[in-house]
Specification:
heterodimer, A: alpha+beta, 4 domains, 13-stranded mixed beta sheet, 6-stranded mixed beta barrel, 29 helices, 24 strands, B: alpha+beta, Arc Repressor Mutant, subunit A, two-stranded antiparallel sheet, 4 helices, 2 strands, WH-like_DNA-bd_sf (chain B), Tscrpt_reg_PadR_N (chain B)
Chain lengths: 882, 112
């Protein structure tokens, strides 16, 4: 007889519970035989399939509990027993539990804080629609990478390439970092300087996604003289009102202009374009100038963004750019005597990976993310090691329990799961504690990182918390679980437990690892601190202290400049004052190509320059080596230039004889001569990240009334500033007074390092604390274990110091070994970090000695506390028991 | 009466087991149900009901003989337990009581 369909049978055998299979299959067979007889084998097969499938129902699927082989560890009784034992162990050994949980909690808290930070850094520019098709076009020359391009690039790209879907430009006007916003309502005027305002093309919001609170992003910036403001700015100016249609007066150094608000965007998403407001590029102030920009070589200050069409290969597209630039810009570039190339940068990568010159604002850094990430991981690891070390060291205490469990029939897997469960419980307790820590520390951390982080703003973060906690539990519990569960019941129940050599060696290795990490961090902190104080105290070639800078960022302020200056100079505490287009410490982006007499434009030197007033050199205290400074006694200074030594050398002159020589630059195909009237000693006009480059001071090219700089001599700054404000108010009643100190502005260039240094410092402290906690636990344990030995030694006449030495020796040796390992690692790492500076400290030997000594003394302090306690114990007490 | 929670289908299966007496197993019960009530039920439904009844303690079972047409597999033979019997009697008593309480002309006549 033909059997029923084989696969249906297999299926049944697979899903049906074993204890039901026989009767079910028998019944189905019986029915099949009848069906074959009644309706033929074809239909019988079909019916068999249907009948089999109908058995897919709970009663047939449910397995009968099989006696003897069920996993004990999962039964509720065993689970509650495990929980109870874990809890008792926790409570019984309060010190060790506290060390473990506190260490883990601190490790988890730092790890989670860093994760928050990293998540935030990674979130930049990820929210734009079709973000993978957005690119920024940057300029590359032989000397530098420049984040912006010349004005006509954007439109040229759109016209020439069908691959380009849309283009847009963003303009950040150099030396105009603030704009005065004024809003008048019911005769009340609100006005303040606002930074981060950028001019953008009408297509801007087609490329970049900004969620709008009011207004329509598609039409927001289409009309001339409109602006879009951030939610924060909107509430500052208008409160809760919908500001669309309202008029804001924007005060610029060359006039006041009215703009109509056409939209408000929410500042929920982060972008490398950290705008507070956007102004339309078509406007009454710089609109005309922008429209005149047809030159492909000069004024590379337009940030150009393109959106490629779907499916366009960016690399292939980038390969077409040299030909494109050659087609349009060859003549302009040749006239200027420069060569450059265009490059594409993917927008989502800009924030973390791009660090070109002239970025819109300071970007993040992937390297620092890696550094912070690995430090966080190491901290967590150190905390996990504490757990591993303490639980293996104290394994003797649990050995009897393991022995009895095994004798009662526990298999290894169930013991492993028990111990893993315990460590998971620990990490869970630590998690709750660490969430408390985080809540406490977030404000501090936020001010440290200048971010606005919150615990549960990102749903993925909750998954991270769970993952990290699980990882912590497993990481710290895995080795102890396997170690403890490997005990042989007979040996341990006899009471013989020899800490195996491999376990002891591993424990020592882990302690060495902990201290290696700590020492590397100490070294890092010292070197960073050294470099920062070096940078702060390095002589810059001029006197940066006692200089007050007042920005002249409105039409009124520039117009009434002379009156203000005269007013301020009346103050006896003001030594000298002058205005300039820029001052040392802030970006100085104006440059021209100059060439010396008898040379051609192709040998030109790129010289950055500031346009300054008479007395600028004296006010800032530059050292004039040869020639003279600008002075009102020389009326023909309009074509004079003062150069620094680097510029003079690169132009091919000898500084001694350079005064009186002529140099030239070309502007709109006209050759302009300049005469060198002075040579100043090199000074750092940028941060010490940069070498000193060719620099010049002129009186005419561009606008000199941007910043008013006063050199003062006083101790009563508050009084002086109040007086200055008084003078300002007298002359400029409609413009708010603002000021800064030059040395602080200079310092702002090192914010990133400052931040890193404080983060590393805190991490170092945390690492040392956790490592010492672990050490403390280990020493406490070894002292406890050797109570009798110490008692006997004391009875036989051992002194307290000798016993302290006995207990401390072993651990001190470990720290010394850690020192030896840490030194080369830290040396290499810190040299890498110092690479970013043009001016840097050398790492000296005493730094290593100091770090080692620090680590050693902290370790000794920790160890001695316990060992002295043990050594002072009365031997009568320790020997009495038993 | 609180103890006897029997679904209608369960009741019928329980009765059929009683009808078949010593030869009550899956296929036989299915066939008997078909024959007696005209219901065409699937074997799995009958198995599920039997399983449930056994869990409730109204049926007991033991493995019977193997036959060739079953591929040498044994049948599970079911018998009604005392509890099952009690349940059936309770249900019947309750129905009878209800029938007896109906006044003669309360129900509309069905046949002429």
């Amino acid at each position: 007889m033909k059997p029923p369909p084989r696969y249906a049978d297999r299926l049944l055998e697979w899903f049906c519970a074993p204890h039901l299979l026989e009767e079910v299959q028998g019944d189905l067979y019986e029915r099949f035989v009848r069906d074959v007889r009644d309706v033929g084998s074809q239909r019988a097969n079909e019916r068999y399939w249907v009948n089999v499938l109908r058995f897919v129902r709970p009663f047939a699927l449910k397995r009968q509990p099989i006696e003897y082989s069920s996993p004990f560890s999962l039964s509720p009784v065993m689970l509650s027993n495990h929980f109870k034992i874990a809890w008792r162990n926790l409570v019984k050994n309060k010190v060790y539990s506290a060390i473990n949980i506190f260490g883990l909690a601190v490790g988890l808290a730092t790890c989670l804080l860093i994760t928050l930070y990293v998540f935030d850094e990674l979130s930049y520019d990820k929210h734009h629609k079709d973000v993978n098709r957005l690119y920024r076009v940057a300029t590359e020359t032989k000397q530098e990478n420049w984040a912006a391009t010349a004005a006509p690039t954007a439109l040229g790209l759109k016209n020439d390439f069908p691959e380009v879907e849309q283009v847009t430009r963003l303009l950040k006007v150099p030396n105009m970092d603030k704009m005065l916003l004024r809003y008048t309502h019911n005769h009340q005027q609100k006005q303040f300087f606002e930074t981060n305002g950028y001019y953008v093309d009408s297509t801007f919001f087609e490329l970049f996604t900004y969620p709008f609170k009011y207004g329509n992003p598609q039409k927001a910036i289409n009309q001339p003289n409109t602006l879009v403001i951030s939610e924060t700015l909107s509430s500052k100016l208008f409160g809760e009102e919908n500001p669309v249609g309202k008029v804001i007066n924007v005060g610029l150094p060359f006039g006041d202009y009215n703009y109509t608000v056409s939209g408000v965007f929410r500042d929920t998403h982060k972008s490398h374009i950290d705008a507070h407001f956007f102004l339309s590029m078509q406007n009454g102030d710089i609109g005309n100038w922008v429209n005149q920009q047809k030159n492909w070589a000069t004024n590379n200050i337009f940030y150009t963004y393109i959106k490629l069409k779907d499916g366009v290969n960016a690399q292939a597209f980038e390969a077409k750019l040299p030909a494109f630039l050659n087609r349009h810009g060859a003549a302009d570039l040749k006239a200027l005597g420069v060569s450059k190339e265009l490059a594409l940068q993917a927008v989502p990568d800009i924030y973390l990976t791009s660090s070109m010159d002239n970025e819109i604002s300071a970007n993040g850094s992937m390297t620092y993310l890696y550094v912070f990430g690995s430090i966080a991981a190491f901290l967590l690891l150190i905390a996990c090691i504490n757990f591993m070390n303490l639980s293996t060291a104290r394994s003797e205490k649990r050995a009897k329990e393991v022995g009895i469990r095994k004798a009662m029939g526990a298999i290894r897997a169930s013991l492993v799961s028990q111990f893993l469960g315990e460590s998971l419980l620990m990490s869970l307790l630590a998690l709750f504690l660490s969430l408390g820590f985080i809540q406490l520390l977030l404000p501090v951390f936020n001010s440290l990182t200048q971010k606005n982080l919150a615990l549960f703003q990102n749903p993925i973060f909750v998954i991270w918390i769970a993952a990290i906690t699980l990882l912590t539990g497993l990481l710290s519990g895995l080795y102890p679980a396997f170690y403890l569960s490997s005990f042989r019941p007979i040996t341990v129940l006899k009471g013989k437990l020899i800490n195996s050599i491999s376990a002891t060696a591993l424990r020592k290795g882990l302690v060495v690892f902990q201290f290696t990490v700590s020492i590397v961090l100490i070294l890092g902190a010292i070197v960073i601190w050294q470099q920062l104080s070096f940078v702060q105290n390095q002589h810059l070639g001029f006197n940066k202290s006692q200089k007050i800078v007042v920005p002249l960022q409105s039409n009124q302020a520039t117009g009434n400049y002379t009156a203000f200056k005269d007013e301020v100079l009346k103050n006896p505490n003001v030594v000298a004052a002058a205005s300039g287009s820029t001052y040392p410490g802030i970006p100085s982006d104006n440059d021209l190509l100059f060439y010396a007499e008898g040379k051609t434009v192709h040998e030109a030197v790129d010289i950055n320059f500031a346009t300054v007033e008479n007395d600028y050199v004296e006010t800032l205290g530059f050292k004039l080596l040869y020639g003279r400074a600008f002075s009102k006694n020389f009326t023909a200074d309009s074509t004079s230039i003062i150069l620094n030594e680097v510029a003079v050398n690169q132009l091919g002159f000898d500084p001694k004889t350079a005064v009186g020589k002529h140099i030239y630059f070309e502007w709109q195909n006209v050759r302009h001569p300049m005469q060198i009237v002075g040579v100043v000693r090199n000074y750092n006009y940028e941060s010490l990240h940069q070498e000193i480059k060719p620099y010049g001071l002129t009186t005419t090219i561009g606008d000199k009334h941007r910043y008013f700089i006063a050199s003062v001599q006083t101790t009563a700054y508050a009084k002086l500033l109040a007086d200055m404000e008084q003078s300002w108010k007298k002359v400029n009643p409609d413009t708010p007074f603002s000021y800064s100190f030059l040395d602080q502005d200079f310092q702002r260039n090192y914010e990133k390092e400052q931040r890193t240094s404080s983060i590393v410092l805190y991490f170092t402290l945390i690492a040392i604390v956790i490592a010492c906690l672990g050490l403390f636990g280990l020493v406490a344990f070894s002292a406890e274990q050797r109570t009798k030995e110490i008692g006997i030694r004391k009875v036989l006449g051992a002194s307290v110091p000798s016993i302290v030495a006995l207990l401390s020796k072993e651990f001190v040796r470990l720290v010394v070994v850690a020192n030896l390992i840490a030194v080369p690692i830290a040396w290499y790492g810190m040299n890498q970090w110092l690479h970013d500076f043009a001016y840097k400290v050398t790492i000296e030997w005493w730094v290593f000695a100091l770090a080692g000594l620090l680590a050693l003394s902290t370790a000794l302090l920790t160890v001695s506390f316990q060992s002295i306690k043990a050594a002072l114990m009365n031997p009568v007490k320790s020997l009495r028991s038993e | 009466m609180k103890r006897t929670y029997l679904g209608e289908f369960e009741e019928i299966v329980l009765l059929t087991v009683a009808v078949l007496n010593d030869a009550a197993y899956g296929v036989a019960i299915t066939d008997e149900l078909d024959r007696q009530t005209g219901r065409s039920v699937s074997i799995s439904a009958v198995h599920a009901a039997l399983h449930r009844l056994e869990e409730k303690g109204m049926l007991s079972s033991h493995m019977g003989d193997a036959t060739a047409e079953r591929g040498g597999r044994r049948k599970r033979l079911f018998t009604v337990t005392a509890l099952g019997s009690r349940a059936l009697h309770d249900i019947r008593a309750m129905r009878d009581q209800l029938w007896n309480s109906i006044s003669p002309n309360a129900l509309p006549a069905i046949s002429i």
